[in-house]
Amino acid sequence: MPNPQLSAVPAAQATKRKNAPRDDEDDDAASDSGSDVSMINVDFDFYNLNEDVDQIAIKRLLRQSLSNDENLVDVHPLADLILAESKRMGAGTSIKTDGEESDPWGLLAAVDIRRCQAEPGLKPFVDYLLSTAPPSTIASILDPSNTSRPAFLFSLRMLNLPLPLVPPLYKMLGSELSEANFTHYMIWGRGYKLEGTEEATGLEMDATVKGNKKKKGGAAGGVGGVPAGKFAYHPEEEMIDARGVAVHNYALKTAKPRDDESFGVEQYGRVVLVETAKLAEAVEAMEEACR
């Protein structure tokens, strides 16, 4: 059942379009319009994380975020730790469309770094991040002797999850962790890189062009152009990045060298360190962007 605290949040709705089957009686109208389109409402409900249901989906989403480096971190104990920490702190939310027993489309969960840093579920993950040579600010936060109290935030979801669902996730987590006194949050995920020479991939629809981006042939801007640069898969991270203490983009360790025949976009890992108060400001900016 939904968490009583979360049930006060109305289910968000998104609509999908699909080609509707045509009945014989609609043949004439269809011939005039070309095709019929029907609307399907999808209800998204918020739930607490469920140890009995969500483990497999969390492991799958962790592998998705690790991308080429999925074999460098054992996601089984990490998924168990995320679920255990959610239960211990009473924090973390999943988004589902077919009841609590269904797989989540996305989730936001926290793990107390100081409490769990030496545990087998988290230590290999921390070691992996440190091996990517993060800036001193991030490396310092991950040092057990540091007096700050940080937490990892795992924002894991399907890429096509509607953006208006994201601010409620952060607001609920902030409320649930209000007495935890975390000083910083470390948000881990992945991004992609565009050189500006790619043909249409669909990803460029979410890319914000900053400054004077150049395309193939040296031309800047232009109709149908794909902007060059590095972009997070989760668009709200741009608002967090702008308020972060540090943003660390790192090359995936096991990714094959790219050439002209490489398929898809180049992916990379990313870590954002943000103070608790600044994350709250970023959530307000997310809400404003969704209005």
Defining key terms:
single chain, 291 residues, alpha+beta, Aminopeptidase, nine-stranded mixed β-sheet, disordered N terminus, BCP1_family
Distance between the termini: 29 Å
Largest sheet: 9 strands, mixed
Shape: globular
Order of helices and strands: HEHEHHEEHHHEHEEHEEH
List the topology elements.
Blueprint: H1 4-7, E1 12-19, H2 27-33, E2 37-48, H3 55-66, H4 75-89, E3 93-96, E4 106-112, H5 113-116, H6 123-130, H7 136-141, E5 150-157, H8 166-176, E6 184-194, E7 229-232, H9 237-241, E8 246-251, E9 266-275, H10 276-290
Parallel strand pairs: 5-6
Antiparallel strand pairs: 1-2, 2-3, 3-4, 4-5, 6-7, 6-9, 8-9
Helix pairs in contact: 3-4, 8-10
In short:
This protein is α+β, with helices and mostly antiparallel strands and 291 residues long. It contains 10 helices and 9 strands.
Structural account:
This protein has one domain (4-10, 38-290): 3-Layer(aba) Sandwich (Aminopeptidase). The protein has 10 helices and 9 strands. It has helices at residues 4-7, 27-33, 55-66, 75-89, 113-116, 123-130, 136-141, 166-176, 237-241, 276-290; strands spanning 12-19, 37-48, 93-96, 106-112, 150-157, 184-194, 229-232, 246-251, 266-275. Strands 1, 2, 3, 4, 5, 6, 7, 8 and 9 form a 9-stranded mixed beta sheet that branches. It holds the Pfam family BCCIP. Belongs to the BCP1 family. Residues 1-34 are annotated as: Disordered. This is Mss4p nuclear export.
